[in-house]
Structures are given as structure tokens and as C-alpha cells.
Amino acid sequence: MKRTLVSWGLALGACLALTGCGSSGFDLRYPQRVVFTSTRDGNAEIYLMDTRGVNPTRLTSNTARDFQPKLSQDRTKIVFTSDRDGGDYDLFTMDARGKSVVQLTSNNKLDADPAWSPDGTQLAFVSDRDGNDEVYVMNADGTNVRRLTNTSAQEETPAWSPDGTKLAFGSNRDGNFEIYVMNADGTNQKRLTNNTASDDSPAWAPSGSTIAFATNRNGKYDLYSLNANDGSDLRRLTSDAADDDSPSYTADGQTLVFASNRTGNFEIYAADPDGLNVRHLTDTPEADSGAHTRAVLRNRRH
């Protein structure tokens, strides 16, 4: 069964890390980068910009859709999801300048939501290769694929803890999407949220003590944070009439980047870790998004 992406620009995220990229014209006084997806040039392509929202550089140029980019911790590679092989969605890597593209997965099932381990040796991702969306890990070169979850539900958006020992993820195994955490080998799966709404798109703060996530418990999507160990200390970070979604922290933990449609279409924003001092990073007529695309996993035509 072929799957096509429906409304890829919904439920978005931005992936941040430190990178040099001086040859791309970036001001090295602002070394933190946002790697993101935009349709500003006609179809979904991957771009890089700094956290001021300036100097966007296009990294991919393909008639297919390239999205869900994540930058490795050592800032040398980007993993992303694409249908450029003409089949279903697979995972690819490229260097931080958009060169040396390598296809990591190749099957007639969906592989999406990639996430680098902190040491860059492994990738967590979501696949329906065994019938439903589950969390898997593999070596960074695409070998040694291992399944971590095994339920009849949907699992999505895995995120590594900063020390590489745990993975947070979203799952609807208990009836609606909640935030879960497990050891990096799939053991000790534990539920952190318990709400009738949808909680997903977890992102670890660099301290490892906090997880930010998106939830529609107020009727539309807002950003919250909680204690990564037991789900306590729930805090609401954003409260806007629009949807705020798919958070990511900068490597220094001083900035929270997210996607929002508060100006009509989805754009990328930055805020302080407590959700204050919101800044607009992109402003185009087309959608700008990033690492997490809920529509890929939930809104597929069979």
C-alpha cells in the first residue's frame, strides 16, 4: 500500500545544534543553527539558518519532498525523510552543506521521524514495516535495525536523552497520545503524561531533567514542559490563539524553537525556555517547518 503525505506542513518542529558552516556565509558570532523544511521554492526542501532567522541557505534541491531534518551532535551530518527514491518515505543522510546524500532505508513501508543519538552512532526512527508505527533504532549507516516497541498502537517522534540512555516518544497505546520514556534498548517503558488530550513531540532540554512537548489539552496545540523522570512539575510554556507545536532546545538550553501558525501559515519561532520573549524567525508566504511532522504518521491515504 502506497502512502502519500497529506498536509505535511502541520505539526512541525525545528532541530537545533551548533555548527560552523562558515563557508555558507553565517556570522560565527551566532553559531547556533536551525535546520528546517520550507516550501518557499515550490516543494519541501531543507534549509539552514541561524537563530536570528537570517541567512537561510537551501541544502536540498529535488523534485521530491525532503523534510524532518535533524543535525548530528558533531554537526557534520543531517538525517532527513524523503520520497526521492520514488517509493514510500525513507531515511537519508547528507553532510551539513547538503552534499554526499546516502540512502539509509529502502522498503515499501514508511520510515520517518529520525533522531540522532548524542554520540552520533545510532538513529532512532518510526516505521510501519511490521504493520503499525513502532520505534526502531539502527546504526548511523542504516545497518543493524532493532525494534524497540511492540504494541498494536501508534508510536511516534522518538527523542534521545542528552546522555543517550533513554528515549522519549509519543504513543496512543492507552487510547490517546501521551508522552512515554524508555531505556535506549526499549526496556522499562513508562508513561509520563495522563490526559484525555493528545500529548506528543517530546524534546529533551540539554540538562536532561526536563522534556518539552506539544499538547492540545486547551483545544489547540500549546507547548508544555514536565519533569523527565516522573512527569511532575507540569508547566505551560505558550498560550496563543494559534497552534504552537514541535519544540526543540538549542544546544546551550537558552532558546526554545517551535513552529506556529499564529500569523496564518506555519513559521518558525524562538522563545526563552520558559516560553517568554517570543521571536519570529521566518516569515514567508509558504509553510516553514522542521523536524516533526505529525501528518506523516497520522494522515496517510492508503
Summarize the structure.
It is built from one helix and 27 strands. By secondary structure, it is mainly β. The protein starts with a strand and ends with a strand.
Please bin the fraction of helical residues. under 10%
**Structure class:** mainly beta
Largest sheet report:
5 strands, antiparallel
- Total strands: 27
Number of helices: 1
Q: In CATH's first tier, which class applies?
A: Mainly Beta
CATH architecture: 6 Propeller
Number of domains: 1
Radius of gyration: 17 Å
Strand content: 35-45%
The overall average pLDDT, rounded, is 85
Structural shape? globular
CATH superfamily: TolB, C-terminal domain
Order of helices and strands: EEEEEEEEEEEEEEEEEEEEEEEEEEHE
Distance between the termini: 6 Å
Low-confidence stretches: 1-30, 291-302
CATH level-3 fold name: Neuraminidase
InterPro entries: 6-blade_b-propeller_TolB-like
Protein name: Tol biopolymer transport system component
Pfam families: Tricorn_2nd
Describe the structure using short key phrases.
1 helix, 302 residues, mainly beta, disordered N terminus
Q: Which SSEs are present, and which pair or pack?
A:
Layout (H helix, E strand, L loop, with lengths): L3 E2 L9 E4 L13 E7 L6 E6 L6 E2 L7 E6 L5 E6 L7 E6 L6 E2 L7 E6 L5 E6 L6 E6 L6 E2 L7 E6 L5 E6 L6 E6 L6 E2 L7 E6 L5 E6 L6 E6 L7 E2 L7 E6 L6 E5 L6 E5 L7 E2 L7 E2 L4 H5 L1 E2 L1
Antiparallel strand pairs: 1-27, 2-3, 3-4, 3-26, 4-5, 6-7, 7-8, 8-9, 10-11, 11-12, 12-13, 14-15, 15-16, 16-17, 18-19, 19-20, 20-21, 22-23, 23-24, 24-25
